[in-house]
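chain below, 269 aa
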Amino acid sequence: MITNPKDPPATGLGRPGYRRIIPCLDTKDGRLVKGVNFVNIRDVGDPAENAAAYDAAGADELVLLDITATLEGRATLREAVRRTVKRISIPLTVGGGIRTLDDMRALFDLGVSRVSINTAAVRRPELVREASEKFGPDRITVAIDTRKNPKTPSGFEVMIKGGTEGTGRDAVAWAREAEQLGAGAILPTSMDADGTRAGYDLPMTRAVADAVRIPVIASGGAGTLEHLHEAIAEGHADAVLVASIAHFGTFTIRQMKEYLASRGHRVRL
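prediction:
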């Protein structure tokens, strides 16, 4: 089912009625990059140019993640964000190196729609509540990098600092807590599947999605159109993050949406 493009987007804490395609722009030193399992990073191009192309192609939203900001102990490179915002008309979520409410405010002042917090939220969960109360839940996404770990109740451990440090925390329990603290969405990324194009980690995505009521964005591993459908139908995700299959021209945004529509999912064209 394809909805009218003028239909208003879903808002609030309820799950959206349509399924979103969200290209992910991982950046390093202001450049668009892509890796596999969070390593083997290679340059893909300019994030602002790619963002503009995805906007024109019909992407619902964009996510820009400064993947080395936390590791390098610095804030998000705002110049790349500023250039990207100027080139697009769709919502942009930015993450990486966001530690304080002031960091968030600076990004919102640039025109960013939402922020994604990860390491800082794990280290001080109250940051989620403070941010939600100050800016509103719809503007706060909690990103959760996960790795398989049979010692945790769900089998998935929360990783921080760009996936370099394990926490011993259970990913599903943390997602549930983040919702209670006021997060407006959860972005769980499988380190095991990231960049492999072998498909999303469906058990992890489904476990997180079934544990919360807020939107969940599947991330890490898309390689085929079928994988997008699986993330929604089997992973119970509300939206799908795509990187490799979009950056390297495997499929267009329209092909992704038309395929999802053919499988019975509501999308916006």
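Residues 47-57 form the longest helix (11 residues). The longest strand covers residues 20-28.
thats it, cya
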